[in-house]
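Bumping with the actual sequence this time:
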Amino acid sequence: MIKVLIVDDEMLAGVRIEHMLSKVKNIKAIGTVADVADVIDLPAVQGPDILVVKLPASGSQSVVEFVDKFKVLPIIIFCPSFEGYNPTPSSIKRMNSSRMKLVSSEDLLSAILNASRVIHQRCRAGITEARKHLYTYSYKGIETIPVDEILLFQAAQKYVVVHTVNGTATINDSLAALIVEFSGLFVRIHRNALVAIKAIDKLQQDDDKLVVVIKDLDIKLVVSRRRASNLCQLIPLL
């Protein structure tokens, strides 16, 4: 669950943001305060993942003093950004903040989702074991996909489409990174496709081409010639 703290001297604006986040999955507003200094009076707050701050009303220095209290720096979204005014305190690295010029619900949600991606990537830093689930980000919020439910990864332009029995979703991971991370669970059958080994039903010839039949998925994928030999050796072992 991604925790969001809102700092806005217009409390109705904060309530509106809380209402927006109540409709999305796995993102929770943990409170709204008029000033960063007021956070100390909120005992339920255990360090937000994301801080949405309206500046300059809240004061740059207060923000710096606040985030210094946490071992892990929250991602900070500053809004609005006025022309000629730099809302990012010098002590906060730009990579840990986002600047917004528009404060529509769509823009704010997009910024929060982008910040959530950074948080998940930061949590993975230094971890070598394969993930148990993947994340997808949309206007609905953050969805989790268990890796053991994935049947197929298929490259599509700038994204990778994840196929499960329940449907499809898009992720930003590359196939090259996925096959390294999940080398024992998936096999590459083509430059644009990774198939879950346990999901392979059979291989068959179709118009002089070798295709993979995937269990519970109405898709037949052509196996590239350079991958065919290795795949044929794998199938008898399943």
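The tokens above came from a reply further down the thread. Residues 2-124 form a domain with the Rossmann fold fold (CATH 3.40.50.2300).
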